[in-house]
Amino acid sequence: MSTNDSPDDFPASKLERSGLFAKTGLKVGKNYAEYLMDRATGADDPEAR
Length: 49
Hints:
About 55% of the residues lie in helices and about 0% in strands. It contains one helix and no strands. By secondary structure, it is mainly alpha-helical. It has a domain at about 10-40. The relative contact order is 0.08. It has one helix at about 15-40.
């Protein structure tokens, strides 16, 4: 959280906070799964691992 953000910007209820963290976790998990698939298939690398 940056110094310019006010505390009012962050969701107050437990349900809103948990939803925000779950959404963020899904984004991170999706990106990690894409990374693993690219690594497994050798999409970026000319020599597959």
